[in-house]
Amino acid sequence: MIGDKIIHLADDDEDDRNMIKEALEEANADVYIIEAENGLELLRNIQDSEDLSETVVIVDMNMPSMNGLETIQALRSDPRCSSLPALVLTTSNDPKLKLEAIKAGANDFFTKPTSIRVLNEIANDIVGRFFDFGVA
């Protein structure tokens, strides 16, 4: 069963998706990850979602069909998705690309790290910042 804290993850590289998913699940096992190979698939997945109140979107920048910038722009133009946290996690560390992503509406921009430890730190940051896992 899908939990109430969902991350929509779009990345065309299956190995990267698996590593990111693993890091996010390690950060908190109660987060449910819905994977997509591109932005278009991610948008379709979001349209099929009933409740977006506890949803975060993570996109790669370079994907076929719809890249990360186009995906974020589409999210921001949809009233239902306009306030969803949208993050870029990509191989590029180009400051111009980061600025473009932020201008398009990204809440944050991360460069994919070369170590699992740093990826785990990014995953912990994302989960800790955008989801409330308060003790009942």
UniProtKB/TrEMBL annotation:
Residues 6-127 form the Response regulatory domain. PROSITE patterns: RESPONSE_REGULATORY. Keywords: Phosphoprotein. InterPro entries: CheY-like_superfamily (IPR011006), Sig_transdc_resp-reg_receiver (IPR001789), TCS_response_regulator (IPR052893). It holds the Pfam family Response_reg. The modification 4-aspartylphosphate is found at residue 60. This is Response regulator. It comes from Dyadobacter subterraneus. The lineage of its organism: Bacteria, Pseudomonadati, Bacteroidota, Cytophagia, Cytophagales.
